[in-house]
Each structure stands twice: as structure tokens, then as C-alpha cells.
Design goal:
Number of helices: 5
Strand order of the largest sheet: 1-24-23-22
Structural class: mainly beta
Order of helices and strands: HEEEEEEEHEEEEHHEEEEEEEEEEEEEH
Helix content: 10-25%
Radius of gyration: 19 Å
Number of strands: 24
Strand content: 35-45%
């Protein structure tokens, strides 16, 4: 998932209140700009137990998404939906955890991360099922499993190829618009390099702390590290022309995150939000003029969607106004619709929602016209 991480343990009450106060002026000034950007809104998924995130192929005929569909499998699996016929097929192996799917822009390939090659994958599935049956409750927290690797497969899920094959968390991957590059997040250096005492202690306390953004060729070759921090850099996506990447960077304490962009060689890293809260899951509009993201400036667990110009020169503008979680937004390739994940359901489980997007109003609200 690109990535609902650390959200359940963002902050203690005093820190949250301080962060909220620091954002109060922003909320007061910008509240009047919150307009209805989404119309004809409806729930896109309903048969699944829960759904994480969805992404479209460039021709808008296919959608890849992750979902938990039965009690027999407690972890997300990857599904491919034909948007013309409505047919849905599973493309991940069905064993282990999976996350972060993407559809190749030109070919019949799906990208995802999985732990199915972990020798203990089935045992971990069984343990999770038993934990749930026992009634044990625990806060949601993302698992940076060191057996996550990035795979590609065909549309039938029959030709699965490991592209990373390196110990460590390799996930949150997406193809570039031309399909030649893959951007992803990884903490592999914690397993493959000699760490300083400080880094080793940091990693032992929080395995996400050494996650950086990487880029590689589509076949898994020529891997390059793009970020150089001891904070969680993750959730990278290419802009429409494939020349820049947007991602989110957590603070050192893991309680805040901001949105950044950079060139695909790692140069010109630019921070475009300064909300001092948890801002994450950024995604470019196909026009390339602004980015949509989720943030909790309105409350610890109340995540709303906002947009901001790609240079971060304008104040971010609020898009949604519903109590609860709204996140993981993605535009359709033509820029006319928005799909996102929300728990605005009776069961309070994450599901996909979809609506018509008002691009002209977005440009006007950010003074980009």
C-alpha cells in the first residue's frame, strides 16, 4: 500500500494538539475555499471485505487493486478488473501478503509486491486467522516485512517474475508513463550494507526509518537510490511526462509527513506542503499542474483530500468533507474522474469510491487559470 502506514499511532494527545494549533491559521484561512470538486459520487466496491487502493491503465480499460475478499485469506491480494466487461480476476498467488499494484501503461502486465516466497508465508496466514478468531483487537499498523519483493505478472497471474529478489522491504512500486522505469520504496540497505551504530539502533526501533526512494529499469536492473535520509521516504509516483516523482517524507519521529517532488535522478528535491501534520498518498493530476493528497489537519483520524500546485506556492485546498478516512486518491488517466479509498461505510471498512472530477474548479481554486 502506498501507504497507510503509521497512521494508527501517529501521535500522543499533547503532540497532536500542538500540531493542530500550528495548522489552525491554515484551516481558518482556507476553509472558505473548500468547494465541491466531486460530483456523481458513488461506492465502487462492495463485495469485498475491505479494499486498499486502485490504479488505472493508460487506456482506462483495466484497473488493478488490492482487496481482502474472504475470511480464509486475512491479507490483501491483487485483483485486475476489466472496466468494459466488469470481469475480475486475481493475479497474485494467494499466499502471503501483497500490496501496491500497478498496471503497465502499454503491455498486459501487472506490478505488485508480495511475500509469497517467504517459507513461513502460510504459517503467518494461519496465525493471523487464529488471532482474528480469538477476538483479539489491535490497532492497524503497516508491516514492513523483509520478505516483500516486487513482482510482475501477466493478466492471468500465470507468469510471475521477481524483479527485486533482495532481502528487505521492497514495495510501493509504479511504472513510469512509458513503462521503462520503476520507482519504489525500500529499506534494503539495512540488510545489505554496514550501518552506523546510530542507524542500526534506529532501524531496530523502527524498520521504516531507513526506507528510501529507489528507481530501476523495468527489468529490475540498474537500481539507484534517490533519497538519502534516515526518515521514511515512500509512495513514489511519476508525473505525466515521466520527468519527476512525487512522494511523501515522514518526520524523524514518524508523527508527521509532507509531500515532496524531485527529478527522476534525485535532483531538485522540493517540499510542496508545510502543514506539520500527516500528509501523504500524493498523486499527480494528468494535467501535471497539481497534486492531490490526504491529510489529517482536521483531526487525528479524520483524513481529508486536498490539492496543491506542483510548486507548492499556493495554499493547499480542501476537496472532501466527511468524518473518517478519505485517502489513497488516484485520477483516471483522462483526468475526468477521481477514485479513492474511504471508510464512510456502515461497517467502517475501507472501500473504493468514485466520482466526476471538476478540473476547471481545481485550477480556479489554486489560482492556476
Amino acid at each position: 500500500m502506498k501507504n497507510f502506514t503509521q497512521i494508527s499511532s501517529i501521535t500522543s494527545a499533547p503532540l497532536f494538539i500542538n500540531g493542530l494549533l500550528s495548522a489552525l491559521l491554515f484551516i481558518t484561512v482556507n476553509q472558505a475555499s473548500a468547494v465541491d470538486f466531486i460530483s456523481e459520487e458513488y461506492q465502487l466496491s462492495d463485495k469485498e471485505v475491505r479494499v486498499g487502493e486502485a490504479y488505472y491503465r493508460a487506456d482506462m480499460q483495466w484497473m488493478a487493486y488490492q482487496a481482502e475478499v474472504s475470511e480464509e485469506n486475512p491479507f490483501y491480494q491483487i485483483y485486475l478488473k476489466n472496466l468494459v466487461s466488469g470481469k475480475v480476476q486475481q493475479v497474485s498467488p494467494g499466499t502471503g501478503k501483497t500490496t501496491c499494484s500497478w498496471v503497465h501503461p502499454l503491455q498486459e502486465k501487472v506490478l505488485f509486491s508480495s511475500t509469497h516466497e517467504d517459507s513461513d508465508a502460510k504459517a503467518k496466514m494461519t496465525a493471523e486467522i487464529e488471532r482474528r478468531k480469538s477476538g483479539e483487537r489491535q490497532s492497524y499498523a503497516w508491516d514492513y516485512d523483509e520478505f516483500y519483493d516486487i513482482y510482475e505478472t501477466d493478466f492471468e497471474g500465470g507468469k510471475i517474475k521477481n524483479l527485486t529478489n533482495t532481502l528487505g522491504y521492497d514495495a510501493e512500486a509504479s511504472w513510469s508513463p512509458d513503462g521503462k522505469l520503476i520507482a519504489f520504496a525500500s529499506n534494503r540497505r539495512a540488510y545489505t550494507e554496514q550501518l552506523s551504530e546510530e542507524e542500526a539502533a534506529l532501524f531496530k526501533k523502527d524498520p521504516s526509518s531507513l526506507i528510501d526512494i529507489y528507481i530501476m529499469n523495468a527489468n529490475g536492473s540498474n537500481v539507484k537510490r534517490l533519497t538519502q535520509t534516515n526518515a521514511y521516504d515512500g509512495g513514489p509516483f511519476f508525473n505525466p511526462d515521466g520527468k519527476r516523482i512525487v512522494w511523501r517524507r515522514f518526520s524523524a519521529n514518524g508523527r508527521e509527513a509532507e509531500i515532496f517532488t524531485m527529478n527522476i535522478d534525485g535532483s531538485d528535491q522540493k517540499q510542496i506542503t508545510r502543514l506539520n501534520m500527516m500528509s501523504w498518498a500524493p498523486f499527480y493530476h494528468p494535467s501535471g499542474k497539481y497534486v492531490i493528497f490526504a491529510t489529517n489537519v482536521h483531526g487525528h483520524r479524520n483524513f481529508e483530500l486536498y490539492i496543491v500546485d506542483v510548486d507548492g506556492k499556493k495554499e493547499p485546498v480542501r476537496v472532501t468533507d466527511k468524518e473518517g478516512f478519505d485517502g489513497l486518491p488516484v485520477f483516471t488517466p483522462d483526468g475526468k474522474y477521481l477514485t479513492w479509498t474511504s471508510d464512510r461505510t456502515p461497517e467502517k471498512k475501507g472501500h473504493l469510491f468514485h466520482g466526476k472530477w471538476n478540473h476547471e474548479k481545481a485550477l480556479e481554486s489554486l489560482s492556476l487559470k
